[in-house]
Design a protein that fits this description.
By secondary structure, the chain is an all-alpha fold. It folds into two domains: about 500 residues, Up-down Bundle (Sodium/glucose cotransporter); about 80 residues, no CATH class. It is built from 21 helices and two strands.
Length: about 575
């Protein structure tokens, strides 16, 4: 059986499972559609939250980031997992006790302002569409590589599956589908990791592979440090980012996680207040399984990739892989455009080294090398790793199914919060307040369908910022929604004027900073880092935006009249234990 046939079978079986769950859990009320009737068990909700969170960025991209960034990639692990600690301690139980459907609804009621609610909806839609475009693009790439169809066809199939279970099942269908998707993606991620860890280090637990021998008694990380420095790269275990930038990136990712609307809404689906905190704990546990495996996957992939290209001692021309003898996985990924070779010196061999390292340039020239000839997109690392390691085809097919599950689970959650924002926070609360529950449910389904179509378009024609989805989506969430939610729970003196001013300040500053450096300065070339504010990169600027949000919100609230007595009573009711 060919790899393509096997992949069709495995992916088709998972799609059949998702659609079957959608039929079984069809939403019949707005409560089912928005918050799954508020009766999801904490363990199931924790699993669904983990799937909702672990998008294509986590499944496909994170290990690639770690593989090529080394130590610097740890900021993503610390930031994304740390955000769930904030969720469990500061937000989840209080939002559940509020007892409504959406985050904009909480902001609108807490700050007694339809304007605040509309601003929150605008932030939510920007965050969600930015994020979902990347997920749909990931679906298209996985389809094009493993199922032999073009990106457009892959997107249409992915859109069809998401359309079916998101529109039909709403939050109820999405929740139980995400439980299944978590099982698929975590199995698809850990099984290859175990195989490759055994193959390279002799240890079956990837998390322990770092300190294990990779041949000759040398540890994996020690060997990797030696291999990459021999090619002019920085040590894998050393960091190049400044401590200030590491701090702000980690903080932005943490509070950005705690401010993501599709994650926050998951805590509205559990039966009781204490279940919200419990489900956050389970989510952190389920996420940790993948996140503690990712560093090993990244390190093993970098070692295997380098070993494939540099099969002999550095400096021995014959040690470089002959282009005509490149393995089949190499040829297949070349067809996607995510891996490319340019034979600069015309010797028919592939030179892979750091040609930006001046100390290595002279040595490279003496060997007749005229520049690095291999370009590898970091997003292929997890998907290509089983093929690089020579694992069985069923493992490769499983990874394809896992990548699609990760992208679809997050896409569905994001599309639902967009749908809820339109139908519940705009139409029901503002445009047509007198509509029935049945009409609201219909509008919610139509909104979800339109959102699916727009997400598919953005996936096929991604805007320039999709590649920076982490910086953009997390920065906006950190700078706009997180401060007003936190202050809304713990600061009774906060009023509507402060909330609106804070959200707009954080939003405008963060979007402006990222847009300026990523889409204006970066294309011009030169040393962009010299112009960063206090040395803080666009990936970390969301934390500064959040600080500005806090400062402006508190200052404006202090200078204007306090909120009404009923709002203060609402805050006390949310914060008071049962």
């Amino acid at each position: 059986m060919t790899l393509a046939t096997l992949t069709y079978i495995v992916v088709g079986a998972t799609f059949a499972l998702y659609i079957g769950i959608a039929f079984w859990s069809k939403a019949r009320t707005t409560g089912d559609f928005y918050v799954a009737g508020k009766h999801v068990h904490p363990v199931a909700n924790g699993m669904a939250t983990a799937a909702d969170w672990m998008s294509a960025a986590s499944f496909i991209s994170m290990a690639g980031l770690i593989a090529f960034l080394g130590y610097d990639g740890s900021v993503y692990l610390m930031g994304w997992t740390g955000g769930y600690v904030l969720l469990a301690l500061l937000l989840a139980p209080y939002l559940r006790k509020f007892g409504k459907f959406t985050i904009p609804e909480f902001i609108g009621d807490r700050y007694y302002s339809q304007t605040a609610r509309v601003v929150a909806v605008a932030c939510l839609i920007i965050i969600s569409f930015t994020y979902v475009a990347g997920q749909m693009r990931g679906v298209g790439i996985v389809f094009s590589r493993f199922l032999g169809v073009d990106v457009a066809t892959g997107l249409l199939v992915g859109m069809g599956v998401v359309f079916f279970y998101a529109v039909l099942g709403g939050m109820k269908g999405i929740t139980y589908t995400q439980v299944a998707q978590y099982c698929v993606l975590i199995f698809a991620y850990t099984v290859p990791a175990v195989f490759i860890s055994l193959q390279v280090t002799g240890v079956a637990v990837p998390q322990l592979a770092f300190g294990s021998g990779a041949g000759g008694g040398e540890s994996l990380l020690a060997k990797l440090d030696r291999v990459v420095t021999d090619l002019g790269f920085a040590e894998y275990t050393s960091g190049s980012k400044s401590p200030v930038d590491v701090f702000f990136i980690t903080l932005a990712l943490m509070i950005g996680t705690a401010g993501l609307p599709h994650v926050l809404v998951r805590f509205f689906t559990v039966p009781r207040v204490r279940d919200a905190r419990t489900s956050a704990g389970y989510a952190l546990l389920f996420i940790a399984i993948l996140y503690t495996t990712a560093p090993a996957v990244g390190a093993l992939a970098r070692l295997n990739l380098t070993a494939t290209i540099q099969s002999g001692p550095v400096g021995a021309v014959d040690g470089n892989l002959a282009y005509a003898e490149r393995p089949q996985w190499f040829r297949t990924w070349e067809d996607t455009g995510l891996l490319a070779v340019e034979d600069l010196n015309g010797d028919g061999r592939i030179q892979y080294y750091n040609d930006a390292n001046p100390a290595f340039a002279e040595r490279a020239e003496s060997m007749g090398w005229q520049g690095n000839e291999l370009t590898v997109d970091q997003d292929i690392i997890v998907l290509a790793n089983p093929e690089i390691a020579g694992l069985p085809d069923w493992v490769v097919a499983l990874v394809a199914a896992g990548g699609i599950a990760a992208a679809l689970s997050t896409a569905a959650g994001l599309l639902l919060v967009i749908s809820a924002a339109v139908s519940h926070d705009i139409v029901k609360s503002w445009v047509a307040r007198g509509i029935s529950e049945r009409q609201e449910l219909t509008i919610g389904r139509i909104s979800a369908a339109v959102a699916v179509l727009l997400a598919g378009y953005l996936g096929y024609n991604p805007p320039g910022f999709v590649a920076q989805v982490v910086a953009f989506a997390f920065g906006i969430a950190a700078a706009s929604l997180f401060p007003v939610i936190l202050l809304g729970i713990f600061a009774a003196r906060m009023n509507r004027e402060g909330a609106i001013a804070g959200m707009l300040t954080g939003l405008v500053f963060t979007v402006g900073y990222i847009a300026y450096f990523k889409f204006h300065m970066q294309p011009l070339g030169g040393n962009v880092k010299e112009n960063w504010l206090f040395g803080i990169s666009p990936e970390g600027i969301g934390a500064v935006g959040a600080m500005l949000n806090f400062a402006v919100a508190i200052a404006v609230s202090t200078a204007t009249k306090p909120p009404p007595a009923e709002t203060r009573a609402l805050v006390e009711r949310i914060r008071t234990p049962r």
